[in-house]
């Protein structure tokens, strides 16, 4: 009997692909292992075994496999099931899920480019001959293709060797697009063994009697190493002895101390644990008990707790319970909320049990974390990270925390799978029969709706910890202020007064300016022209720090112009205002204050974000201006005033979630104010002081906002009453985009009738010279979601079979945000 393996290949193929196995191979191979196989003419890919069976494929002859890459499965069965669910639900392929789910270093293929790891420090003696040849070749040339390595070794079977080198972190794959992570090397010293005997030690100390500082350092060294003979960090020796680096260098030069460098495990914790005991207040206690009650009934829990009510402490306790039962715990949160502050809090409590999985980590670090989770080691019981953490190979997941569950960045926008990590986490928890808690100060309408309809359990925390009051909110009508000339630039007199007051009291201020859709653009006062991006249908935005006009979609840029490009007039102004302009105005208003700015431009480098936060914490900054980045998970003690520069640009965004989002954003920003005893203040500047959302923000009226938005969603047929699938067609040819969109919309209308909207150009209809057109499918609650998706899938297949539309790509977005 022949044997076959169905493989998932990292390609947008609808089906798994079947390869033939020898009996021996079939005995060894298990689902979840990687195999290198040929696909297409001459290409080698890494595939994942999904199934082993004995049924030959019907329409093609199965090819033999190329090589086996793993000795143990790299994926668990649960992961395979989860991938399959994701592909079906989000209308993408398992191959696309595979690309998103596995660290790139696991996906060796013939197109891979191999480089020497930047962190290489190995004993070459340990390498096999073949490994040595590769490493040596890579030391001479900066990178090699797989083919070149095959030639080098004169063998076709190089992938397993490379694989070993990857797992030992000696080489990197396809690394260039990632930021390189600096090696974390730490300097250690150790006493020269020649002086270890007591007599030798005394002799040495006598000899050093005329070098008292060096003697002093040695005494410190002895006392610090009295208990353990482990090498000592130079930094520690410096700190404890108070000596200068020069003194230590002299000891090294005299061969008394030996110096060497060691690598520390980057992804784990190196500090000390000082886990305090958490003592809940009565409200936390009650919430905690309710959560556990709901968990015991296998319910998804929604925790609605106002900002600073102590939700994080509750999560910590829940995590502790889960790991005490020997389970793994996953703490998911949006990328921007993944701050050092929070990570430190968890590490202080759980020490090196916490692993952090971050998009800024290199491929090697991801591999390291992946393996730790797969091995289910004590060190990796708790994983904290952003959305892609749901792809880690959990063995025995007991708890998932989804913090800031309302955040739209849990949804992956591009590329496929366009999954929502919160929703996917609910499915993942269900597969493991794990508990899951969704938490927020401003829950999403969908989640709250689920709670209201008993799909989730609701637990509430209405008070801030330590009886801190919710901040007082004041709305400033800037329309009137403008008329009465009570504005200086974008600052109302009220805001200026309040800033002065805070500064006088020695407190800090946060000013929030939303960037989205509201960056400064250049406009001609004479003819009204504003410079456009040649590749996209948007105006270029002005960046004062490098005096450029830039496109936010494709990065196109030109120098700022002094004359109108259309009519040569010199009468040009910049319209709209961003964080940069707030900063400029603020510097003029408060020349003596230290002002910081946090937005995408000032936080580019790996640690830039952290630096600004730390500077603000250390009160090296008095007033911090920022975008969305400021809203999440930060706990600043001395902020007494939060100013929202302009609420209207949030409210006027053309999107059915705009009002919900504005409410969430403003309330979250407001939550940064007054986290200690003194009551904080929030000032909202707006042209529409009577807008219902502004009113709801100022009274913290979540339920009012929810009820009103729900009514609108019902009326206009949006979630949670209707589900949405958005199809976006993209093509460089304008009329082809239109024709194809018409065809597709008609085909969908044949089945879904009036629940198909469009085709329609989105607000930005051309990006990077591609035209965009959207079709929206609305799915009523009573209509089967599964059947609908099958039908959409079928229609898309017919569409893709039409030759003239081959150049049109269709992006499918299920539950678009
Ligand atoms: P949230 O996550 O709801 O915004 P946090 O958990 O960050 O709130 O709590 C707000 C502040 O109150 C933090 O500084 C936290 O350390 C403190 N806090 C909350 N609960 C407790 C507790 N039970 N004991 C001591 N401090 C607490
Ligand atoms: Zn002009
Ligand atoms: Zn552009």
UniProtKB/TrEMBL annotation:
PROSITE patterns: HELICASE_ATP_BIND_1 (PS51192), HELICASE_CTER (PS51194). Zn(2+) 2 binds at residues 533, 536, 551, 554. SUPFAM superfamilies: P-loop containing nucleoside triphosphate hydrolases (SSF52540). Its cofactor is Zn(2+). It comes from the Bacteria. The keyword Nucleotide-binding applies. Zn(2+) 1 binds at residues 524, 527, 564, 567. One of its GO terms (molecular function) is hydrolase activity. Keywords: ATP-binding, DNA replication, DNA-binding, Helicase, Hydrolase, Isomerase, Metal-binding, Nucleotide-binding, Primosome, Zinc. Residues 559-713 form the Helicase C-terminal domain. SMART domains: DEXDc, HELICc. InterPro entries: DEAD/DEAH_box_helicase_dom, Helicase_ATP-bd, Helicase_C-like, P-loop_NTPase, PriA, PriA_3primeBD, PriA_3primeBD_sf, PriA_C. One of its GO terms (biological process) is double-strand break repair. Component of the replication restart primosome. Initiates the restart of stalled replication forks, which reloads the replicative helicase on sites other than the origin of replication. Recognizes and binds to abandoned replication forks and remodels them to uncover a helicase loading site. Promotes assembly of the primosome at these replication forks. NCBIfam families: priA. Belongs to the helicase family. PriA subfamily. PANTHER family: PRIMOSOMAL PROTEIN N. This is Replication restart protein PriA. The gene is priA.
């Amino acid at each position: 009997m022949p044997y076959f393996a169905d493989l998932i290949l990292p390609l947008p193929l609808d089906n798994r692909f079947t390869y033939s196995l020898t009996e021996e191979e079939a005995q060894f191979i298990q689902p979840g292992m990687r195999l290198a196989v040929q696909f297409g003419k001459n290409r080698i890919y890494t595939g994942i075994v999904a199934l082993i069976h004995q049924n030959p494929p019907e329409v093609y002859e199965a090819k033999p496999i190329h090589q086996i890459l793993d000795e143990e499965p790299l994926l668990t069965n649960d992961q395979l099931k989860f991938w399959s669910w994701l592909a079906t639900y989000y209308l993408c392929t398992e191959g696309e899920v595979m690309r998103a789910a596995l660290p790139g270093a696991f996906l060796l293929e013939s197109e891979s480019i191999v480089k020497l790891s930047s962190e290489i420090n190995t004993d070459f003696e340990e390498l096999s001959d073949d490994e040595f040849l590769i490493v040596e070749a890579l030391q001479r040339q900066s990178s090699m293709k797989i083919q070149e390595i095959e030639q080098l070794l004169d063998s076709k079977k190089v992938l397993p060797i490379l694989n070993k080198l990857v797992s030992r972190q000696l080489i990197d794959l396809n690394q260039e697009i990632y930021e390189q992570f600096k090696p974390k090397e730490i300097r250690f010293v150790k006493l020269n063994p020649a002086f270890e005997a007591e007599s030798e030690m005394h002799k040495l100390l006598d000899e050093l009697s005329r070098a008292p500082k060096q003697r002093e350092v040695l005494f410190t060294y002895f006392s610090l190493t009295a208990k353990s003979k482990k090498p000592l960090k130079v930094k520690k020796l410096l700190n404890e002895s108070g000596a200068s680096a020069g003194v230590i260098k002299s000891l090294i030069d005299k061969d008394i101390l030996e110096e060497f460098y060691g690598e520390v495990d980057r992804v784990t914790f190196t500090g000390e644990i000082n886990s305090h005991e958490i003592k809940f207040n009565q409200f936390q206690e009650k919430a905690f008990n309710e959560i556990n009650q709901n968990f015991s009934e296998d319910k998804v829990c929604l925790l609605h707790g106002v900002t600073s009510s102590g939700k994080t402490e509750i999560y910590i306790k829940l995590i502790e319970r889960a790991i005490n039962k020997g389970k793994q715990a996953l703490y998911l949160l949006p990328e921007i909320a993944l701050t050092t502050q929070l990570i430190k809090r968890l590490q202080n409590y759980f020490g090196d049990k916490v692993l952090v999985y971050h998009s800024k980590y290199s491929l090697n670090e991801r591999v390291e974390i992946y393996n730790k989770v797969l091995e289910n080691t004590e060190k990796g019981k708790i994983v904290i990270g952003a959305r892609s953490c749901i792809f880690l190979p959990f063995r025995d997941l007991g708890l998932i925390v989804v913090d800031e569950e309302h955040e739209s960045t849990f949804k992956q926008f591009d590329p496929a799978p366009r999954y929502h990590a919160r929703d996917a986490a609910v499915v993942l928890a269900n597969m493991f029969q794990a508990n899951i808690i969704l938490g927020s100060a401003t829950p999403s309408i969908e989640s709250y709706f689920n709670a209201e309809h008993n799909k989730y359990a609701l637990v509430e925390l209405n008070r801030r910890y330590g009886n801190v009051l919710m901040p007082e909110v004041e709305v400033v009508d800037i329309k009137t202020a403008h008329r009465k000339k009570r504005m200086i630039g974008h600052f109302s007199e009220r805001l200026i007064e309040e800033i002065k007051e805070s500064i006088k009291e020695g407190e800090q201020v946060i000013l929030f300016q939303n960037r989205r859709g509201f960056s400064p653009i250049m406009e001609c006062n004479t003819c009204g022209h504003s410079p456009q991006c040649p590749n996209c249908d948007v105006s270029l935005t002005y960046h004062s720090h490098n005096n450029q006009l830039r496109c936010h979609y494709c990065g196109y840029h030109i120098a700022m112009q002094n004359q109108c490009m259309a009519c040569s007039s010199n009468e040009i102004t910049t319209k709209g205002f961003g964080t940069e302009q707030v900063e400029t105005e603020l510097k003029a208003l408060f020349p003596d204050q230290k002002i910081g700015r946090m937005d995408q431009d000032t936080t580019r480098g790996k640690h830039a974000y952290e630096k600004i936060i730390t500077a603000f914490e250390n009160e090296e900054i008095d007033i911090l201006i920022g975008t969305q980045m400021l809203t999440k998970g930060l706990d600043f003690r001395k902020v007494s005033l939060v100013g929202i520069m302009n609420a209207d640009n949030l409210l006027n965004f053309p999107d059915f979630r705009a009002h919900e989002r504005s409410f969430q954003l403003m309330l979250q920003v407001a939550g940064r104010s007054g986290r200690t005893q003194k009551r904080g203040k929030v000032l909202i500047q707006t042209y529409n002081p009577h807008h219902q959302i502004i009113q709801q923000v100022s009274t913290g009226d979540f339920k009012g906002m929810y009820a009103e938005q729900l009514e609108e969603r019902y009326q206009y047929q949006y979630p949670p009453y209707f589900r949405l699938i958005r199809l976006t067609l993209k093509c460089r040819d304008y009329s082809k985009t239109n024709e194809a969109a018409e065809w597709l919309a008609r085909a969908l209308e044949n089945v879904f009738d009036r629940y198909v909207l469009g085709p329609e150009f989105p607000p930005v209809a051309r990006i990077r010279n591609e035209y965009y057109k959207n079709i929206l499918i609305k799915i009523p609650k009573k209509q089967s979601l599964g059947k609908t998706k099958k039908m959409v899938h079928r229609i898309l297949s017919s569409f893709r079979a039409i030759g003239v539309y081959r150049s049109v790509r269709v992006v499918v977005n299920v539950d678009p945000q």
